[in-house]
From TrEMBL:
Residues 156-335 form the D-isomer specific 2-hydroxyacid dehydrogenase NAD-binding domain. It comes from Sphingomonas brevis. The record marks R285, H333 as: Important for catalytic activity. It is an enzyme of class 1 (oxidoreductase). Its EC number is 1.17.1.9. This is Formate dehydrogenase.
């Protein structure tokens, strides 16, 4: 029987909701490229409920315990005295989420003698030292596509919010003000702008499709080029590299995974190549953009705005410069954990667990690492190596002591 250790974000401060804002969520047939939605043998939750936090338990407890397995769920993930580190030593499976990542560094993997599966309840497994997982023969899997559209919608919202100066205008109203000139002095239409995505995978291409009706000029860069008919349909221009693309763009959106090739991609030199006053939206991973270079570019005006929901580490220390830099639209890591997305990633997590526990193959599209090498989606979208360095900083955030600096 297996021990499953699951790390999820805290419950709402006032406890689990008794009612929800809406009674249902739309039922989808398939993902946009035809990929099947998650196909577990069953689910023990109602789609639309909060599942991604500790009490939500991804709806897994009755299934796992009913089959004789044990489930430990905790939000206490950082530092050597955390419940995660204590429970890890004999866990067979670790489930974690990018929103509240249980960083699986090489040191932690070395302590986890029984670990066979690191399962991401979402997309993006950079919080796992993939090189260490490759070396130890641990399988790494994620719920590919489960929240790609959720993020694409968020990207469009962030681009419009920055360009239209929405956040500052909203702040002004909340503060009792009415000075229209203050709102309008930084407000632009995106019509006619040049907008480029770094990566045109599931999220990047969904962003392109959603932006096309705004009559903008679309650009992308990716390691693999889109089919020519798709390029024509979207009217999108391909560039050899991010460095080639960014000088042409008024808005850049980052939609590639974090791995050694993309870590620190948007450093001071890359940002200097961008047009003065460009907007940068990053919902991919915090470490793809250099923390200090972004803050400095907003101070100097090289960037007119920066938005997204990904930081490094997570949770971000309270003194992280992105919390207080000018003209930012940052939120905690939320774009991929809408209630709609939660239903899909909980069902996908259950599907992967069922496969693992019953000795059936995990779908190729869910695989990142298997059998000592990058596999499935991982072989296409990642490069081997480790992107977890520095994650111990996350212990600086004390979740339940809001006054601490
Ligand atoms: P996909 O695997 O569909 O797409 C990733 C794309 O990135 C692929 O097209 C890949 O190219 C491309 N890519 C990889 N490396 C590079 C590189 N060095 N330069 C340019 N392009 C590169 O994943 P998704 O679109 O679904 O998700 C992308 C990322 O978004 C995730 O890995 C995750 O980090 C983040 N994400 C964030 C969420 C949030 O809540 N904020 C939720 C979900 C995802 P190719 O395969 O052609 O080599």
């Amino acid at each position: 029987m297996a021990k499953i250790l699951c790390v999820l974000y805290d419950d709402p401060i006032d406890g689990m909701p008794q009612t929800y804002a809406r009674d249902d969520i739309p039922v989808l047939d398939r993902y946009p490229d035809g990929q099947m939605l998650p196909t577990p043998n069953g689910i023990d939750f109602r789609p639309g409920e909060l599942l991604g936090c500790v009490s939500g338990e991804l709806g897994l407890r009755s299934y796992l315990e009913g089959n004789g397995h044990s489930l430990v769920v905790t939000e206490d993930k950082d530092g050597p005295d955390s419940e995660f580190e204590r429970e890890l030593v004999d866990a067979d499976v670790v489930i974690s989420q990018p929103f509240w990542p249980a960083y699986l560094t090489a040191e932690r993997i070395a302590k986890a003698k029984n670990l066979k599966l690191a399962l991401t309840a979402g997309i993006g497994s950079d919080h796992v030292d993939l090189q260490a997982a490759i070396d130890r023969g641990i399988t790494v899997a994620e719920v590919t596509y489960c929240n790609s559209i959720s993020v694409a919608e968020h990207v469009v919202m962030m681009i419009l919010s920055l360009a239209r100066n929405y956040l500052q205008s909203w702040d002004l109203v909340k503060a009792g003000g009415w000075n229209i000139a203050d709102c309008a002095a930084r407000s632009y239409d995106i019509e006619g702008m040049h907008i480029g995505t770094v990566a045109a995978g599931r999220i990047g291409s969904a962003v392109l499709r959603r932006l096309k009706p705004f009559d903008v000029h679309l650009h992308y860069t990716d390691r693999h080029r889109l089919p020519l008919e798709v390029e024509r349909e979207l009217g999108v221009t391909w560039h050899e590299s991010p460095a080639d693309m960014v000088p042409h763009c008024d808005v850049v959106t980052i939609n590639c995974p974090l791995h050694p090739e993309t870590e620190n991609l948007f450093d001071a030199a890359m940002i200097a190549r961008m047009k003065r006053g460009a907007f940068l939206v990053n919902t991919a991973r915090g470490k793809i953009a250099n923390r200090d270079a972004v803050a400095e570019a907003l101070e100097s005006g090289q960037l007119a705005g920066y938005a997204g929901d990904v930081w490094f580490p997570q949770p971000a220390p309270r003194n992280h410069p992105w919390r207080n830099m000018p003209n930012h639209g940052m939120t905690p890591h939320i774009s991929g954990t809408t209630l709609s997305a939660q239903a899909r990633y909980a069902a996908g997590t259950r599907e992967i667990l069922e496969c693992f526990l019953e000795g059936r193959p995990i779908r190729d599209e869910y695989l990142i690492v298997q059998g000592g090498h990058l596999a499935g989606t991982g072989a296409h979208s990642y490069s081997p190596g480790n992107a977890t360095a520095g994650s111990e900083e996350a212990a600086k955030f004390k979740a339940k002591v809001p006054a601490e600096g």
